[in-house]
Each structure stands twice: as C-alpha cells, then as structure tokens.
C-alpha cells in the first residue's frame, strides 16, 4: 500500500520566516527536530503558535502520568484512524511502560484482558469520541480516580488529539517514521 501524497506540503526550510523557525525550534532537541505535523501546521501562521502551545502545555501538564497520557493519545489516534498519531506515540507509549498486549488492545484489539484502570481510560476516550460527552457513571468513576485538573486534562487531550487526527488525516500528512 502506498502512502497518500500530502495535500499541503510541509513548509520548506527556505520558506520559513524567523517566527516560523522560532516556533519550530520549540521541539528541537526532542526525538526529531522536524515533524511533518508542525511544518505543515506552520503553513497557517496565525494558528500554528496556538496549536503548538496547546500541544506543549498538554504534554507538559503532568496532571496525568505519562503512561496514562499516552494511553489516551494512542486510543484517540487509533479510534480516529490516524496512522501519524499512532506512529508518533507508539514509541512514547512503550517508553512509558505500555506493553505489547495493551498496545494491541488500544489499537482496537480485544479489551477483555485489559486492567481496569487502563480500561477506564480507553472507555473514556471511546465515549468522548462517540457521544461527545461523558455519561454520569463514567464521570463519577473518573472523578474517583482523578482530581479536577487531571479530569480536565484527560478531556482536553482527547479533544486535542481528535482535532490533530482530523488535520493529519484530511491533509494526508506523512508519518515521520519511528521515533
């Protein structure tokens, strides 16, 4: 299967302004200094800094554990069919302690063997994406486990990565390869 051609090409180095380079440099020193998601987002100079800032704030928020955060991001990416998000976060998930059976479950495999705390996260992502809200039982269960900030962070992560999946899928942004 061949990868789709990007509908909008990433911003080429010779097209970048000083502001573009400054925004892109915020992720320099991470696993990759150039991500297709960001160089494509940079084509919308007004939205790019805001989207990048929200991404950074959610990743650095620290309310959820890194492992929980990656479960949420991977499930949102999987449900939304975002090969890009999956490819970018599967290594981060492994680094955070997500094992192969759980990765398979997150990717759409059987959930029967998933530990209840992880299943709760997966179910919350599924419910948010399908119903666009949390039912009262789901809300109460999450609030027993998470404080207000963590609960808000979880919901924002699902919404943000849903937005990113729409962007990535619609523009055929090419995955960057293994991190």
Give a written overview of the molecule:
With about 180 residues, the chain is mainly α. It has two domains: about 15-60, no CATH class; about 65-170, AhpD-like (Up-down Bundle). The protein contains nine helices and no strands. The longest helix is centred in the last third of the chain and has 24 residues, at about 150-170. The radius of gyration is 17 Å and the shape is globular. About 30% of the residues are buried.
Write the layout of secondary structure elements.
Elements: H1 18-24, H2 36-41, H3 48-60, H4 66-79, H5 83-95, H6 100-106, H7 116-131, H8 136-145, H9 148-171
Helix pairs in contact: 4-5, 4-7, 4-9
CATH topology grouping of the largest domain = AhpD-like
Q: What is the helix fraction of residues, given as a range?
A: 55-70%
Distance between the termini: 22 Å
Q: Total number of helical segments? A: 9
SS elements, strand count: 0
In percent terms, what proportion of residues is strand?
A: under 5%
Can you tell me the residue ranges where pLDDT is under 50 for at least 5 consecutive residues?
A: none
- The CATH class name of the largest domain reads Mainly Alpha
Shape: globular
Reading the helices and strands in chain order gives HHHHHHHHH
Mean pLDDT score: 92
């Amino acid at each position: 299967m061949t990868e789709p051609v990007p509908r909008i090409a990433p911003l080429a180095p010779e097209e970048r302004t000083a502001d573009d380079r400054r925004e892109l440099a915020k992720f320099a020193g991470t696993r990759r200094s150039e991500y297709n998601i960001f160089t494509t987002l940079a084509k919308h100079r007004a939205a790019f800094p805001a989207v990048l800032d929200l991404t950074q704030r959610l990743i650095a928020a620290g309310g959820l554990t890194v492992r929980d955060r990656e479960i949420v991001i991977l499930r949102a990416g999987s449900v939304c069919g975002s090969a890009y998000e999956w490819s970018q976060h599967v290594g981060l998930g492994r680094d955070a302690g997500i094992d192969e059976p759980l990765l398979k479950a997150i990717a759409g495999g059987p959930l029967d063997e998933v530990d209840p705390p992880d299943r709760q996260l997966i179910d919350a992502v599924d419910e948010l994406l399908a119903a666009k809200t949390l039912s009262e039982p789901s809300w109460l269960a999450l609030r027993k486990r998470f404080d207000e900030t963590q609960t808000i962070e979880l919901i924002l992560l699902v919404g943000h990565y849903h937005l990113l999946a729409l962007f990535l899928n619609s523009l055929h942004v090419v995955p960057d390869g293994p991190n």
